[in-house]
């Protein structure tokens, strides 16, 4: 295994002071898989103050110290060094009552979650793999260290961590670990919203998300009960060949990675079961489902404490995911002004993913339509377009020269001009807009609403 020189330097320093130290956890797993680890964690027999002493020439970041973690900065990269520990009782199923520092690596490895995450490495000792982690890596298996029921009972977050690694690595979850996940899923209700949300996002971003969502929908439904009605909900529509949940899962997998696209995909049809009607020909309809889905999603994301800006984007995309403007410049401009042109690219990817989760025979035509709207969007958003008052080629100062006072009437006139530009009645060009403004004012005074 190829340790970065900074890691080798830190471990050598600790060793030289008499404290065994190892690279541990995710970085060992990723290196054995031939992947470049995104960070390197080090564990050691040294107590926090002993680490500080041994590494006194290094630059130390103080923030983790109260949790017994020393963070060292080398060449701009951060390395976390943690004293070997066992976790005490987990009375609230999440926070160990006490962390006990210990002097043996073996005890530290025993408290780790999965065999593939419980390996340590140092050049002089080679790989320490007490639980068959290497073999499980080869077999592509996620297996608890020790008794799965006990381990998930101590810390329910591990249930979602198992799904995270299954989704990211495409590994199967070992049968007993799997059984314990389903048996103990309800203990997820003890986990904080922020942690649930962070794990959910990582599950959604995995390459094997489709399999994980299908196999573990009951687990996610513990904190997302709104998903349950989607499962097995037949759509009775020639557009669809999957039930609402199967469709949703396909749309998630077909969406680009990232929190906004994947959350939008997960929730875009969540309101469908509530909106279902069947016509006399036996065809299913879901009138109004984007608005209902958007409303439900807003509540869910607030509950999960997702940051407001991301949540807002997700909700906006869901609200518009099924809106289909006529593919002509005027209708597309009107649509963009409602959506906000900045959202179009994300909306386009959601729409394409949505089509990929529908009846394949209907896809080519739908994709052609999306492309034709996209072509118009590209044309209309380049050059002199305006979708906001601030993008108009005239401003308040210009209108004041026509005698319009600052205040409400100014705002109304600017809005009117914007609407005219969007509707294609006037070019977004200074002279044209001034002329249009003058005409509006003349009309206004002849109607008795003069320039007050
Ligand atoms: P990632 O690549 O996602 O960072 P990772 O394995 O490094 O994966 P972390 O969440 O960074 O995951 O945790 C680092 C290590 O700490 C894990 O590999 C595991 O050994 C241990 N660990 C983290 N959380 C838990 C937990 N809840 N219970 C037991 N061990 C844990
Ligand atoms: Mg990590």
CATH class of the largest domain: Mainly Alpha
Number of domains: 3
Give the distance, in angstroms, between the N- and C-terminal Cα atoms.
78 Å
Count of runs of 4 or more consecutive helical residues: 22
Per DSSP E runs of 2 or more residues, the count of β-strands stands at: 13
Structural class: alpha+beta
Helical amount: 40-55%
Spans of at least 5 consecutive residues with low confidence: none
Strand order of the largest sheet: 3-4-5-2-1-8-9
Q: Tell me about the largest β-sheet.
A: 7 strands, mixed
Query: Rg to the nearest angstrom?
Result: 29 Å
| Strand coverage percent | 5-15%
Overall residue-averaged pLDDT value = 94
The hetero molecules present are:
adenosine-5'-triphosphate, magnesium ion
Oligomer: single chain
Label the CATH architecture of the largest domain: Orthogonal Bundle
Could you say what the CATH topology of the largest domain is called? Hypothetical protein af1432
Indicate the overall shape: globular
Walk me through what this model shows:
With 452 residues, the protein is α+β, with helices and mostly antiparallel strands. It contains 22 helices and 13 strands. The chain has three domains: 5-133, Beta Polymerase, domain 2; 224-382, Hypothetical protein af1432; 389-446. Helix content is 50%, strand content 10%. The strands form four sheets. A seven-stranded mixed sheet has the order 3-4-5-2-1-8-9. A two-stranded antiparallel ribbon has the order 6-7. The protein has a two-stranded parallel ribbon with strand order 10-11. A hairpin with a 5-residue loop joins strand 12 (277-278) and strand 13 (284-285). The longest helix is centred in the C-terminal third of the chain and has 19 residues, at 363-381. The protein is globular, with a radius of gyration of 29 Å. The mean pLDDT is 94. It binds adenosine-5'-triphosphate and magnesium ion. Magnesium ion is lined by residues 26, 39.
């Amino acid at each position: 295994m190829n340790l970065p020189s900074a890691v080798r330097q830190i471990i050598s320093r600790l060793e030289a002071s008499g404290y065994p130290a190892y690279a541990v956890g995710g970085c060992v797993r990723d290196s054995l898989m031939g992947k470049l680890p995104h960070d390197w964690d080090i564990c050691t027999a040294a107590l926090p103050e002993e680490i500080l002493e041994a590494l006194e020439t290094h630059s130390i970041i103080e923030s983790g110290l109260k949790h017994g973690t020393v963070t060292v900065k080398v060449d701009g990269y951060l390395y976390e060094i943690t004293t070997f520990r066992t976790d005490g009782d987990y009375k609230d199923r999440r926070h160990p009552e006490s962390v006990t520092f210990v002097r043996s690596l073996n005890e530290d490895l025993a408290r780790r979650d999965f065999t593939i995450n419980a390996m340590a490495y140092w050049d002089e000792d080679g790989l320490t793999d007490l639980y068959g982690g290497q073999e499980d890596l080869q077999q592509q298996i996620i297996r608890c260290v020790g008794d799965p029921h006990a381990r998930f009972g101590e810390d329910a977050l591990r249930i979602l961590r198992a799904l995270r690694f299954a989704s990211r690595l495409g590994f199967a979850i070992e049968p007993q670990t799997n059984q314990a996940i389903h048996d103990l899923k309800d203990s997820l209700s003890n986990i904080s919203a922020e942690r649930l949300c962070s794990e959910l996002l990582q599950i959604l971003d995995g390459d094997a998300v489709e399999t994980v969502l299908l196999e573990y929908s009951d687990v996610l439904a513990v904190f997302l009960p709104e998903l349950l009605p989607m499962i097995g909900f037949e759509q009775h529509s020639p557009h669809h060949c999957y039930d609402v949940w199967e469709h949703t899962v396909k749309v998630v997998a077909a969406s680009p990675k990232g929190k906004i696209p994947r959350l939008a995909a997960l929730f875009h049809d969540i309101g469908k079961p509530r909106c279902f009607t069947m016509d006399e020909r036996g065809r299913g309809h879901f009138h109004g489902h984007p608005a209902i889905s958007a409303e439900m999603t807003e509540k869910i994301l607030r509950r999960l404490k997702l940051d407001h800006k991301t949540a807002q984007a997700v909700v906006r995309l869901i609200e518009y995911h099924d809106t289909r403007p006529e593919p002509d410049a005027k209708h597309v401009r009107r649509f963009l002004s409602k959506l906000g042109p900045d959202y179009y690219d994300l909306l386009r990817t959601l729409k394409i993913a949505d089509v990929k989760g529908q009846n394949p025979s209907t896809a080519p035509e739908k994709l052609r339509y999306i492309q034709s709207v996209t072509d118009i969007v590209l044309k209309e958003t380049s050059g002199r377009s305006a979708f906001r008052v601030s993008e108009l080629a005239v401003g308040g100062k210009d209108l004041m020269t026509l005698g319009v006072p600052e205040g409400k009437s100014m705002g109304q006139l600017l809005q009117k001009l914007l609407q005219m530009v969007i509707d294609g009645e006037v070019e977004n060009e200074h002279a044209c807009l001034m002329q249009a403004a003058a005409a509006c004012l003349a009309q206004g005074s002849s109607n008795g609403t003069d320039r007050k």
